[in-house]
DNA sequence: GTAGGGTTAG
């Protein structure tokens, strides 16, 4: 109907504007506004109140406020009320409260609507005091607070975390309606008191109270978050019985519950049968699939949503991106990225998620380009990029970015700190690590949780296991992760007995070990050659703790058996594993074959390994190692050929040492260091001295078929020797030299380092890709097995 | 003109 065709009076407007508000139809509402102006009704207080209300329901606060401010006579409390509740029901508490104050100054008396609106603005611990003052004033004034008001008080207390006060409110209410019961129920759920929520829900049922869609939504959300599938299905059945299941929001919550309980099938069934679906239904089912490892299904559904012409928002895209990054599929990420740009949907959350997704797909360049483009980088943006660098092994870049973040004036939080600490750990950058430890103390971070575990880990990786221990002792409430870090720290440094000690102390403290704890323990056993203990703990893990070993646990045991020269037993063990051996398991066995020069078995294992994981250059190096050590150059060439045809390159060896405030890195035969000349001349002198003492280069560790002299030259240019030499030049006598290497130490360098530690009277600590070696007086803590 | 509910993230 065209209103302009009919004679209108002012009474028509409030109801039509109310409809606009309910439908959130701002366009039509604005048209009506224009019409009201044309008809000269805007001086009518009822019409203006309705207009204010319409604008606020359509989330146009500015429009509402402009109208409100233009009102010449604001004696009508209704005008104030609609503006206040417009603000408070949309989370604009400050605006609502300042308007309330203004209203009091104008001398307008409030009514029960005002009370509800203002209490709604106090649903935040920050405004609780004010809410309580209002509560007190109400009690003192002897006003009879009706059920709307008491409900609003109840919700205020529960949203502020004062569930006890909320419950007292609830129990003291003379009159309760469905909203009261539901508010109490959702109060428990929002405060994560799930057990209380369940027994409260039972109380509702026992008392014979009506439940409605809202009650079901709250309790199902609680059961989902508990992962309580059994009761979840019960309530689902109950919802069907009451015919609530056709409700859109009930359906959405049920989908989420099944997703959180890991029941992907039920989730899909409910989703398929929904009579209508909205954006949230699609987002929930996409996220549900992604969280349960069904990444392709998640992406398929995302495509489905687009095909159906469903509106897409940042949250839905965020879930789809999560699926892409789990699939490590950069081209999917790029597709979605382009889609976002085309649709103009890019916001900060999505920008951060995209950085993260590219990072997960090892597209560091894309991640970094995206990161640099973000205009208002927040702490999440910086941390995403930092941890992306850390995960992909670019620890230096991570640290650099951390300093840039400080310059940009962004305060790091716990998650950022954990990333940065682990960057120091992977660099063995003790000085930087200590600096960051001091920074944490200065900034008043409490040393607990993941921060302290990562510090313990960092000190261990930097060779300062004593600091790890000291820090560990300072922590009052030691959690499983902290104990595991400490077990790992002892193990890395070859102190298996100590690791076992920690393990038993942990059990005494009443903690239950998990897969990772056992991994640390078995690593410790393997680094210290504790064969019997290793066997025993693997058994204990299965029998006592019902933990099925991962391939990584088998790797440790293979390492152990191989160390004891029990190569055949290790081989049989691998063949009898309950799960399919992974490349890492064969890799461990092959390493053992090399150490014990068992070529027959080595050849079998090498073939299995190269078949299983043909894209890892390290495997080819290891295989050619086995052949080279027996001078089987034809086989070596063959392996190298296979590697080349696949376009693989050996990971270049690199060693580094922290001197002053800098990390100095050396590649094989590196001549790029400014002090290069000095380093090489010193290295020659060292080698001559050692040769004089009887050192003979073991050229079998050179994997190339070249002349003996050439082989020697190659060995002498190994990166760890350059780093050690630099350490001898730059650090005072008596001070331990600590270096880190990205690959395992070669056999000849191991001998070389032992001799340097003896004849140059220096403790040398080498961290290789696997463990720590402490060299002192010509002996290494690894017992020549690594 | 008033109160209670669902999805995402380093």
UniProtKB/TrEMBL annotation:
PPR repeats lie at residues 76-110, 177-211, 278-312, 378-412, 479-513. GO terms for biological process: RNA modification. Keywords: Repeat. The keyword Ribonucleoprotein does not apply. It comes from the Eukaryota. InterPro entries: DYW_dom (IPR032867), E2_motif (IPR046849), E_motif (IPR046848), PPR_At4g14850-like_plant (IPR046960), PPR_rpt (IPR002885), TPR-like_helical_dom_sf (IPR011990). It holds the Pfam family PPR_2. Coiled coil: none annotated. One of its GO terms (molecular function) is RNA binding. This is Pentatricopeptide repeat. The lineage of its organism: Eukaryota, Viridiplantae, Streptophyta, Embryophyta, Tracheophyta.
């Amino acid at each position: 109907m065209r209103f302009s065709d009919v004679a209108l009076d002012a009474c028509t407007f409030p109801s039509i504007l109310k409809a606009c508000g309910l439908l959130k139809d701002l366009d039509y509402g604005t048209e009506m506004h224009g019409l009201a102006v044309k008809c000269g009704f805007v001086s009518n207080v009822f019409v203006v109140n309705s207009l204010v209300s319409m604008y606020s329901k359509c989330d146009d606060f500015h429009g509402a406020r402009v109208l409100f401010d233009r009102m010449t006579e604001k004696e009508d409390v209704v005008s104030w009320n609609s503006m206040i509740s417009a603000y408070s029901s949309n989370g604009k508490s400050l605006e609502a409260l300042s308007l309330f104050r203004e209203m009091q100054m104008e001398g307008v008396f409030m009514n029960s609507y005002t009370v509800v609106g203002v209490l709604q603005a106090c649903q935040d611990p920050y405004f609780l005091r004010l809410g309580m003052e209002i509560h007190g004033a109400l009690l003192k004034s002897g006003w009879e607070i009706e059920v709307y008001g008491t409900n609003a008080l109840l919700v205020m207390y529960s949203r502020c975390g004062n569930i006890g006060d909320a419950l007292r409110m609830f129990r003291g209410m003379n009159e309760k309606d469905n909203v009261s019961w539901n508010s109490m129920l959702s109060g428990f759920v929002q405060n994560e008191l799930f057990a209380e929520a369940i027994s409260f829900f039972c109380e509702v049922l026992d008392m014979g109270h009506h439940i409605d869609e809202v009650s079901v939504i709250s309790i199902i959300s609680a059961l989902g978050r508990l992962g309580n599938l059994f009761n979840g299905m019960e309530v689902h059945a109950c919802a069907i019985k009451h015919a609530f299941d056709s409700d859109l929001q009930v359906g959405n919550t049920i989908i989420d519950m099944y997703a959180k309980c890991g029941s992907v099938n039920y989730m899909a069934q409910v989703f398929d049968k929904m009579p209508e679906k909205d954006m949230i239904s699609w987002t929930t089912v996409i996220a549900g699939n992604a969280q349960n490892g069904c990444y392709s299904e998640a992406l398929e559904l995302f495509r489905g949503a687009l095909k159906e012409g469903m509106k897409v928002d940042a949250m839905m895209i965020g879930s789809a991106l999560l699926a892409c990054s789990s699939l490590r599929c950069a081209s999917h990420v790029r597709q979605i990225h382009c889609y976002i740009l085309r649709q103009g949907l890019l916001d900060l959350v999505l920008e951060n998620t995209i950085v993260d997704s590219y990072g997960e797909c090892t597209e560091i360049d894309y991640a970094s380009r995206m990161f640099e483009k973000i205009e208002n980088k927040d702490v999440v943006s910086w941390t995403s990029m930092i941890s992306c660098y850390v995960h992909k092994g670019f620890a230096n870049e991570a640290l650099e970015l951390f300093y840039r973040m400080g310059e940009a004036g962004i305060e790091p939080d716990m998650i950022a700190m954990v990333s940065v600490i682990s960057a120091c750990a992977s660099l063995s950058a003790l000085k930087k690590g200590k600096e960051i430890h001091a920074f944490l103390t200065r900034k008043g971070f409490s040393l607990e949780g993941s921060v302290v575990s990562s510090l313990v880990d960092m000190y261990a990786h930097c060779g300062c296991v004593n600091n790890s221990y000291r820090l560990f002792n300072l922590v009052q409430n030691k959690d499983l992760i902290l104990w595991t870090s400490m077990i790992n720290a002892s193990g890395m440094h070859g102190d298996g007995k100590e690791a076992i000690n920690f393990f038993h102390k942990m059990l005494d403290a009443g903690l239950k070990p998990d897969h990772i704890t056992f991994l640390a323990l078995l690593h410790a056993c393997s680094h210290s050659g504790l064969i019997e203990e290793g066997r025993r703990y693997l058994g204990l893990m299965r029998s006592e703790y019902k933990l099925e070993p991962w391939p990584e646990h088998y790797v440790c045991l293979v390492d152990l058996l191989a160390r004891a020269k029990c190569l055949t037993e290790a081989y049989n063990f691998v063949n009898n594993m309950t799960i399919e051996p992974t490349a890492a398991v064969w890799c461990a066995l092959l390493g053992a074959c090399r150490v014990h020069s068992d070529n027959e078995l080595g050849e079998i294992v090498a073939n299995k390994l190269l078949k299983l994981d043909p894209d890892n250059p390290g495997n080819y190096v290891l295989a050619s190692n086995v052949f080279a050590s027996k001078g089987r150059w034809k086989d070596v060439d063959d392996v190298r050929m296979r590697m080349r045809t696949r376009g693989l390159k050996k990971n270049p060896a690199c060693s580094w040492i922290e001197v002053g405030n800098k990390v100095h890195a050396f590649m094989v035969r590196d001549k790029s260091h400014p002090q290069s000349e000095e380093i090489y001349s010193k290295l020659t002198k060292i080698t001559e001295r050692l040769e004089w003492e009887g050192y003979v280069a073991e050229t079998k560790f050179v994997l190339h078929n070249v002349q003996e002299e050439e082989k020697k030259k190659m060995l002498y240019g190994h990166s760890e020797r350059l780093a050690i030499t630099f350490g001898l030049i730059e650090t005072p006598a008596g001070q331990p030299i600590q270096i880190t290497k990205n690959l395992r130490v070669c056999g000849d360098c191991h001998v070389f380092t032992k001799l340097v530690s003896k004849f140059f009277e220096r403790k040398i600590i080498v961290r290789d890709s696997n463990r720590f070696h402490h060299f002192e007086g010509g002996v290494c803590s690894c017992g020549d097995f690594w």
